[in-house]
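Contributing new records

If you add data, match the layout below exactly. Sequence lines come first and carry their own label; structure lines follow with theirs. Keep one chain per record. Anything else will be rejected by the validation script.
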Amino acid sequence: MCGRFSLVEAMHDLQAYYQFEMRDDFLYTPNRNLAPSQSAAAVVELNGKRYPASFRWGLIPPFAKDQKIGFKTFNARSETVSEKPSFKKAFESKRCLIPATSFYEWKKSGKEKQPFEIKRRDGDPITFAGLWESWRSGDELVRSCTILTTEPNDLMADIHNRMPVILERTDFDTWLNPDAESSSLHQLLKPCAGDLLTAEPISRERFKKSAGS
């Protein structure tokens, strides 16, 4: 699973890496400990061009009665994403890239949990495979997102039994393409190579310090 991550990249670096066109209404605030229900930056494609977007983290499907479901849908299992009612439509037509500087996971050790910070070894941003949706209640419109997860690679298996789906830059066009075939999309929903990432144990005190935006 992925329940916490950071994004502290400079905006011009994100724009250069993801090749998106800026929007005047896009607001970006770096966050060292982004949690479900908070605003997450994402990249979407519209008419062949990429744009930045802000989504509430925790996907709220259109049929939801209220926003609380988002606390259960901040992750989507890649093995069933094309079947689950909450994610099926989004998987078909509302896919996005969710950038991160790092993500956090906790390894159980007896009664204690050791936090780890996971980053790309090459220093590039991590790119999660994401889905987004629009939910409306009266005049209120909420756009929200989820991060897809998969089985762990060799590195992550020692820490947790799930990990986020991490896309490479060569995957971006396929993932964002509204006409991409389902088979092509499913080929991307796999663990990344173990040597792509590093996992460093961090103290609880350091983690608390990193929680500030």
